[in-house]
Design brief:
The chain contains 9 helices and 8 strands. It is of the alpha/beta class and 303 residues long. It has an 8-stranded parallel β-sheet. α3 links the parallel β3 (91-97) and β4 (119-123). The chain binds zinc ion (ZN).
């Protein structure tokens, strides 16, 4: 009898090819950051070399840079474009900050200015908006600028606290031609209004009914008071709602590294996928292939 029939090809986190879709880096000498005084402990240079050091036990093949709320966002985009232009750079996509709340003509011109193969998406943080009934991102002019992104084949990344979910569901439903990625599974442990009931489970169900939204299983929702065990039902809920084709993974390095290191995070995700009895091909898809499709990355699958 062929012994190989019984040989399980067990995946380990060190060998699975990963596209880390949520990497932040900084350059404090040349770029100003809105959060520099709110998070002084993080306000320093975080380089791609440090990222490689922190992830050297993982098989991170490619990465997506995500904007870091720079007030000098033009400089940030130019800088990351220049350092990622080196062929050896793992950064194969950039989610740039674009202030879509500025006049339409500015947004259109600015997008045309920065557009290159590497720019795959746009983000402008929604999370600190306190008006949940009429948030700035539901204004007609904002939606018109968002629709420009669909024409330019750019993803928009939604970064919110949990109680923004109903407004965001409204936005996603109104713009079916846009493609969205929900960062950090909609931050279930954090709300703008701490006093209201947290209905994350129900609200995520409604949001997921829109086929144009994808869910990023990234660590940016973790808070000091919660463990990975606490996070598990939330990840399982996302798996149930979004299915294996609409999930991607991200470390949220450097922001989340003091709460959960990339290796610990990706190991945890692998454990959850195995508990869901996903086969190896499905696991590889969530860790790698789905990101290529969602961001239209011009790269090949590893052998
Ligand atoms: Zn982040």
């Amino acid at each position: 009898m062929d012994k190989n029939l019984f040989k399980m090809d067990k995946l380990t986190i060190g060998t699975i090819p990963i596209i880390d879709t949520h990497i932040h880096t900084t350059n404090v000498a040349n770029i100003s950051y809105e959060w520099s005084s709110a998070c002084p402990e993080l306000f320093k240079d975080w380089t791609i070399e440090q990222y490689h050091g922190d992830t050297n036990k993982l098989n991170i093949c490619k990465g997506i840079f995500v904007e870091v709320a720079a007030s000098t966002f033009e400089k940030e985009t130019k800088w990351i474009q220049s350092i990622s232009s080196n062929e050896k750079s793992i950064i194969k996509g950039i989610v740039a900050h674009v202030p879509l709340n500025r006049p339409f003509d500015f947004v259109d011109e600015y997008l045309n200015d920065i557009l290159s193969e590497k720019i795959v998406g746009v983000r402008q943080l929604f999370q600190s908006e306190t008006n949940l009934l009429n948030p700035f991102y539901l204004e007609k002019s904002y939606i018109e600028s968002l629709q420009l992104l669909a024409k330019k084949n750019l993803v928009f990344e939604i970064c919110i606290y949990a109680d923004h979910l109903p407004s965001v569901t409204n936005l996603v439903g109104q713009t079916p031609d846009n493609r969205y990625v929900l960062d950090h599974i909609g931050k279930p442990f954090t709300q703008v209004n701490e006093n209201t009931d947290n209905k994350w489970f129900d609200h995520m169900l409604r949001l997921s009914l829109n086929p144009n939204i994808f869910c990023k299983l990234s660590a940016g929702f973790m808070v000091k008071s919660k463990t990975l065990l606490d996070a598990k039902p939330y990840i399982n809920h996302c798996i149930k709602l979004f299915g294996v084709d609409r999930l991607i993974v991200g470390s949220d390095w450097f922001f989340s590294r003091s709460l959960v290191e990339p290796k610990e995070w990706f190991e945890f995700l692998l454990e959850v996928f195995e508990e869901n009895q996903f086969d190896n091909q499905t696991i590889r898809k969530i860790f790698y292939d789905n990101a290529i499709k969602i961001y239209s990355l011009k790269i090949d699958s590893p052998k």
